[in-house]
Amino acid sequence: MQKTYSPLEFEQQIYTWWESAGFFRAQDSSDKPPYCIVIPPPNVTGALHMGHALTNTIQDILIRWRRMQGHNTLWLPGTDHAGIATQAVVERELRREGTTRHELGREKFLERVWVWKEKYGSRITTQLRRLGSSLDWERERFTMDEGLTRAVLETFVRLHEEKLIYRDRRLINWCTSCRTALSNLEVEHESHEGKFWHLRYPLVDAAGTPGEESIEVATTRPETMLGDTAVAVHPDPEGELRSRLHKLEAENCRNPQELQERDEAVAALHGILEGPRLAELKRLAGLIGRRVLLPLTGRTIPVVGDVHADPAFGTGAVKITPGHDFNDFEVGRRHGLEIINILNPDGTLNENAGKFAGMTVPASRTAVERELDEGGYLVKVVEHSLDVGHCSRCDTVVEPFLSLQWFVKVAPLAASAMEAVRSGKTQIIPPMWEKVYFHWMENLEDWCISRQLWWGHQIPAWFCEHGHVTVARSTPDVCCECGSRDLTRDPDVLDTWFSSALWPFSTLGWPDKTPQLATFYPNAVMETGFDILFFWVARMLMMGTHLLGETPFEKVFLHALVRDADGRKMSKSLGNTIDPLDAIEGISLEDLIKKVEAGLPPEAEREDRRRRILDGVAKKYPEGIEVHGTDALRFTLAVLAAQGRDIKLDISRISGFRAFCNKIWQAIGGVVLPHLPQDPTPVTDPAGLSLPDRWILSRLAQTVAAVNPALEEFRLNDAAMAIYQFVWHEVCDWYLEMSKGALYGRAGEERQEGASRVLLTVIETSLRLLHPFMPFLTEKLWQELPRRAGDPESIMVALYPKAGDFTVDEVAEHDMIQLQEIISTVRTIRGENNLPPSAELSLKLHMTDPVAAARIAGLKDYVCSNLTRIKDLEFVEARPPVCASCPVAGGEAFVPLTGLVNFEEEIARQKKALAVAQKDLSAVQAKMSNPRFTANAPAEVVEENRRRLEDNAARVDKITLSLAHFEELAKGQG
C-alpha cells in the first residue's frame, strides 16, 4: 500500500471494477425489500455543477446505505431532452454555420439535434460516474426514448379523453426570443427601476365628441394603450375602503412591526375617506357606463365598474388591455370586452398598432410617449420600481400574449396530489415545505403545456380542413368528427416538464404492467432541490396519483441550495462557481481563469467588471485548486447538508476533509495494517479487555446507534459528523495513541493480541460505516484488511453496521472521560508553560471528591504512561510550591516546574513577544480610528482590518496573562 494518499490513482479504477462486476444492478424480483430512487434527470445539454454534485452525493449515500442493509436497491439514471435549452444550443451552432432551422426544415433539424445528442449527451453521465454514483447504468433512460415517448402520448390521450386536456385561446406567457409559450414556473421575476406614465383619457358625449372632463390612468407600459378596450373603476369605492378599514382595525398584531404596518395602513385609509380623494373616487364611479376617447387611435372605449380597480392605489382608474395583461384578461371576460393583440410573435408591434406597426416594444414605447405628450394626453411620468418577468432560459422580458394553446386542467389532479401528502402516504422533508406545497397547490392555474418548438414530444393532435381536432395514440387515417382524410398534425411540442412528470413510472415501463413497475413503484424517495418542488415534484405527484392511483414516492427530501462562501448564489456571471471536477482533480490558476473567463455572459464583458471578477478568482485561488479527490468533496457536501439551510461552500472546507481522508489513509497504512492479527475474527465479547479496548468498542456502539437513525431521518450531516468525530477524535487521537504500546508488544502477548483484534474490529466496522459517504477510500482500504472465507467481494455489498452489533459499556466510558480529562489537563499545562513533549512530569492531585480520587487511583497505570510522559502520580493535601495548576472534576491538578523552566529566560521572551504584539495592535488601531480609511477603503479591506484588530487584541491579552503567570511563579521560586 502506498504511503501517500493519492485518490486520482485509484478512484476511476475502482469505479470501473464496480460497474463491470454488476454491483449496481437491481433485480426485477427479489426477496429483499425494494428501495428505489430515480435520478432527477439532468439536461442532456448540461455539465456537472455543484447542485448536481449535492443531489447525487445525497442519493448515492442513501442507496449505498440501503444496499448494505440488504435492500434490493435501484438507482435509475437518465437524462432529460430539455426542449428549449437543447434547441437553443443547436440553433446557435446553425447560426455559426450561416443557416437556420427554418432553412433546414423540421425533419433535417431534428436529425441534427439527435446527432448533437449522441455526440454530447453522455458528457454529464460520464461526470456522474466520476462522483462515484452507483447507478444501475443498464437501465439508463432518456425522456425521448421509445418507451418514454409512448408513455407521454398515452398520458396526453388519456387526459384528453377525460376532458383534463383542452385547447383554448388564452393569454399566456410568451418569450419573444425563444418564440414559445412558457408556463408560470418558467418565468423568473426580477426587480427593475421603471416608470409610471400617467395618461389622460377624455370623456366623450353620446355623439363621441370629447369634452373637458377626463379620467386619469397610470401604466408601466404606455405602448399597450393601443390595445385598451375599457377603463375600469371601482363601483363602490367608499364601501370597499370602509370594509378594509374595519378588517384592519379588528386585526390582532403579533409584534411591533405588524402593529406599525397596520397603523400606517389605517392612517392611509382614513386619509382617503376624510380627504378630497374620496370625492374623486365617487366621481369616477358615477362615470360607469360612459365612454372615453382612446388617444392616438380614434376609438372610444367604455368605463366599466369592476373590483379589479383598487380605490386605494394609483388614480383609482385602471386601463384595461385584455390582450396584454393577465388581470385585464379576466376583467375582459367578465365584461365581454374585445381582446386586441398588438404584438407579433417576434416582439414587434403588429397591424393593430397602426402607425407603430413593425416597431420593437422599446422603440414603440418611446414613440407612443412622444405622441401622447404632443397631443396633451401625457400628464406626468413618475419613477417607480417594477417586478418584471423574464424567461428562465434566455432572460428575455416575457410578454403576456394571446395565443391558442393546449392546457391541463390541474384542479382535479391537484386534489389527489394534496391528499397523498395530507394523508401521510407521501411525507415532505423538511416539513416546513408542506405548508408551501399546499399553498401553491390550492392556488394553481391551468398548466399551459404546448411549446412552439421542434425538439420535444410532438403533440398527438391532428386538424382537418374544417378545424376539427383528432387526438390519437397513432397517426389517424380520418378525422374523428367528419371523416376527412386531409389531416395536419399540430406542429407544437409538449412542455419538457410534461414528460418529466411521468419519470417515476415511465422509466419502469408504464403504461405496461412490468415486473420492475410492480417491484419499484412507488419509489422509496424523491430527493431533489427545493427550487423544483413545483416545477417537478408536485407534477409527479399529480400524474402518479391520477394515472396509477398511487403516490409516486413515499418520501420527498428537499435539499437547500449550494452557495459560495459569502452566501451568494453560484453564477457564471459572478465568476464564483466551483466546478466539482476541478475540486476533485485540481486545476491550475491559469486554467481556472481561462475557464471562468470563457463562462462569463455578455453582461460581464465590460473590461472593469471582467477584470474585477478575474482578480477575485486569482486572489481566492492564488495556487489554483489542489487535488482533493471525490471522497473529500462528497463528505464535505454531506457534512454541510443540514436540513433547511443553504450550503456556504468554501474550498477550504473540502481541503479540511481531504485532510480527514489523509488521516485515515496514514493511520491504517502506517499503524493499523502492520499490527493486525492473523485471525480476522471480530471481537464480540469485551470481557477481559483493557480499558481503552472496552471504551473504543463502546464508543463504536454509540456511533452506530447514532448514524442509522440520522440516515433514516435524512440528517446526513449528523450522520457524517458522528462518524468524523469517532474516527478522527476517538480512534485516531485517543485509541491508536493509547494502544501503540500494546500493539508493539510492550504490554505482553495477550494484551497485544487483544488490542490487534479490537483494532481490526473497529477499523473494519468504521470503514463500513463510512462507505456510503466515502466509497473509494473505504473500498481501497477495506481490500487491504485480512479476509475470512465467505466475506463479500466488495465493501459496498458488505453488511452495514447496526445497533446491537456492539455493547455500550458505561463504566468504561465514565472511566475514560476521567482519564481523558487528566491527560488533557497535563497537555494544557505543557502548552501554557512551554514544556517540551519529551519532558517527564510529576503529577500531584488534590481531590475533594473521594469517589473521583478512587477512580483516578485505579487508572494510575494509564495516567503514568509513554502517552502522557508522567513519571509519577501522587495525591496531596495542599498545593505544592512553584507549580502550574489546572482544575479537574472533583479537585485540582498540579505539576511542579522546578528544574523544568528557566523563569528569567521565559519572562524575557514573553516581554519581547508582548512588545511585538502591542506594536501590531497599535498599527491596526491607528488605521481603524481613521474615519477616511473606514469610509473610503473597500469593504473587504475594512473587514479584514477589523478582524486583525480583534486578533491582535486577543494576542496581547493572552501574552499579558502568561507573563503575569510566570512572574508569579518566579516570585514563589525566590
Provide a compact summary of the structure.
With 974 residues, the protein is α/β, with parallel strands linked by helices. The chain is built from 33 helices and 29 strands.
The CATH top-level class label of the largest domain? Alpha Beta
> Would you tell me the overall average pLDDT?
90
Poorly predicted runs of 5 or more residues: none
Strand fraction equals 15-25%
Examine the secondary-structure arrangement and name the CATH architecture of the largest domain.
Answer: 3-Layer(aba) Sandwich
Instruction: Estimate the global geometry from the Cα principal axes.
Output: globular
Classification by helices and strands: alpha/beta
CATH homology superfamily of the largest domain: HUPs
Largest sheet, if any?
7 strands, mixed
User: In percent, how helical is the residue content?
Assistant: 40-55%
Radius of gyration: 36 Å
Discrete helix count: 33
Q: Return the CATH topology of the largest domain.
A: Rossmann fold
State the domain count.
5
Total DSSP E strands:
29
* CA(first)-CA(last) distance: 57 Å
In oligomeric terms, what are we looking at? single chain
Describe the model:
- By secondary structure, the protein is an alpha/beta fold.
- The chain folds into five domains: 32-164 and 410-455 and 493-559, Rossmann fold; 182-235 and 288-400, Alpha-Beta Complex (Isoleucyl-tRNA Synthetase, domain 2); 634-808, Orthogonal Bundle (Isoleucyl-tRNA Synthetase, Domain 1); 814-896; 903-973, Orthogonal Bundle (Helix Hairpins).
- It contains 33 helices and 29 strands.
- Strands 7, 8, 9, 10, 11, 12 and 13 form a seven-stranded mixed sheet that branches.
- A hairpin with a 6-residue loop joins β10 (291-293) and β11.
- α24 (691-712) runs parallel beside α26 (749-770) and α31 (903-928) packs antiparallel against α33 (939-973).
- The model has no long low-confidence stretch (mean pLDDT 90).
